[in-house]
Amino acid sequence: MKDSFSVLLVDDSADDRLFVRRALRKNPRFMVVGELGDGEAAIAYLAGEGEFSNREKFPYPDVVLLDLKMPRKTGYEVLEWLQSQRHEKICVVVLSGSFLPGDITRSQQLGANAYFQKEALAEGQAAMIADIEKLVEDQDLTVC
Amino acid sequence: MEEPVTAETAEVRPAEDRASILLVDDRDDKCLAMETILAELGQNIVKTRSGKEALRLLLDHDFAVILLDVNMPGLDGFETAHLIRQRKSLEHTPIIFVTGISDTETHVSRGYSLGAVDYILTPVMPDVLRTKVSVFVELYKKNLQLKRQAESLRQAHDELEIRVRNRTFQLAVANESLQKEIGERQRAEENIRYINAGLEQRVSERTAELAATNQELEAFTYSVAHDLQAPLRNIQSYVQLLEEEWAPKLPPETIQYLQRIASRTKHMAQLIQGLLNLSMIGKQGLKLQQVELKGMVEEVVALLKAENPQRRIQWNIQELPAEACDPSLMKQVFTNLLCNAVKFTQPRADAIIEVGQMDVEGERPIYIRDNGVGFNMKYADKLFGVFQRLHPVTEFEGTGIGLATVARIIRKHGGRIWVEAEEKKGATFFFTIGRTRPHPG
Fold first, then answer.
1. Which residue in chain A is spatially nearest to B285 when comparing CA positions?
2. Do residues B421 and B428 lie in contact, with contact meaning Cβ atoms separated by under 8 Å?
3. In chain A, is it the N or the C terminus that has fewer CB atoms within a 10 Å radius of its CB?
């Protein structure tokens, strides 16, 4: 079992990224390796294309925290792209403001491992990070 | 005995039931004798002295029989008979020649050839004359009667025909007006059908429009509420960040204000969440399941007890049925109503909240009763509207969306909700689930 997990944060809201990053910082097992503001950049990062080709600098993450509504390419498109790839083992967690059943089921159908509604307060965020930690452990990311 | 009537003065027109007999003889004594004999027959006797005069009379009178003397000056009997027979209308008028015995042979044969029907010998034998004349009188009368009968038959026939024609005409008229009426009725029916179809069309168009408007409104409510959520969430996060990390460096007053901002943003977040929930009810379909309501109520009550450890509340949960309903929505109903009951009994040291089912006018509503602050019933109809509050926020916090959500869920289940309350005494909420069912038994 891994001691720490690398996290790629994909959200067009810098505010939301800030608070998720702060919440993650409270758990030493998570390490944010990248922050991106749209789906297109996320796909480029995961594909290791262009500026992201240096895997030393931009390591392939264990976990992607993915917003749904983003410019250029949405979270759904990122999920679809991931499904089309023979990618390395990765845990995709959707983190969205929406609590519409439609958004939740569609995310799961497109292969998301979990779906969380964004939390305003630190207690809620901490609980969410704890859930994600459990989830990632259960995913057993060491086996490819 | 009647006065002998001369041709000049004769009142020829006979009474209805009397036949006219024409005596033609130039000798008054013979005439008188025959008249006397014939008077017994009781018929109308017309006498004349000459064939010429007889022909004139025959022009416009009808006679049953003519007694015609053969030997007359001027036109004799044969000549007269000849002239009579030439008239079409007199073809069948019987002529009896009156002749002396001496002339019998020549006269009789000539008479017959001229169309005589009989002859009488002079001197006249009264019985013979009477008998012969009476035969023709009878014949005439019979003929007349037959003619009259034929006439009345013809009249009856004509009348019948007229009546048939009239009747036929009336029927045709009636038929025509019936046809017209049927036509009008058909047109009216067609018109009604047309109007109905138009109405139905309009109703369904209107319904579709309303449904579309409703959907738009719901979508609008959802997207507004949703878009408001993100910045509000960030505000809440930043306030908390300031409170937690910067507190030591901030003046105490500022910290107080931050707490207020936190409390107001929390309220606003609840409002927005409430609106989102409300708009979601419209979007979601009902996922009906058989639910043991008592178990559901007990779950909600356990949660409320945990959330309000400082409160002393006596909970009376009566028997509740199992109902087909959407479990998550029905849980919202009980949560909202029981939360309200907890909230509005806050001033009571001995709060009592009861949940049960009772008979109300043929229905079996579920009720939630509290002995809280209640409200004036004149505000009852405002209670289920969005953002309607009967108490100031400073007294009882809340969003004003809860009961609107409850009402919407109940309506979506086909049930109805109502409330009975009294100021300072408490309130009872009643609701049915599904279509109103008559109470069994």
1. A101
2. yes
3. C
Per-residue pLDDT at B124 exceeds 60: yes
Q: How many CB atoms lie within 10 A of CB B420?
A: 15
Residue B415 neighbours by CB distance under 10 Å: 21
Contact call for A122 and B233, based on CB within 8 A = no
Q: Is A15–B229 a contact, with Cβ atoms under 8 angstroms apart?
A: no
Q: Cα dist. B436→A88, B96, B288, B413, B431 in Å?
A: 58, 114, 17, 11, 10
Using a CB-CB cut-off of 8 Å, the residues of chain B touching A16 are 230, 233-234
**3-class secondary structure per residue, B198-234:** HHHHHHHHHHHHHHHHHHHHHHHHHHHHHHHHHHHHH
Homologous superfamily, domain B287-431: Histidine kinase-like ATPase, C-terminal domain (3.30.565.10)
Nearest CA in chain A to B227: A97
pLDDT at B280 over 80: no
The answer to whether A93 and A66 have CB atoms below 8 angstroms apart is yes
The interface pTM score, or ipTM, of the predicted complex is 0.84
Q: Could you report the per-residue pLDDT of B341-391, keeping only the tens digit for each?
A: 898 888 888 888 999 998 888 888 999 998 888 888 887 777 777 666 666
Alpha helices in A26-62 (DSSP H): 39-47
Q: What is the CATH number of domain B20-124?
A: 3.40.50.2300
Instruction: State the architecture of A5-138 in CATH terms.
Output: 3-Layer(aba) Sandwich (3.40)
Please tell me which of the candidates A13, A120, A122 has its beta carbon nearest to residue B269. A120
The pTM score is 0.53
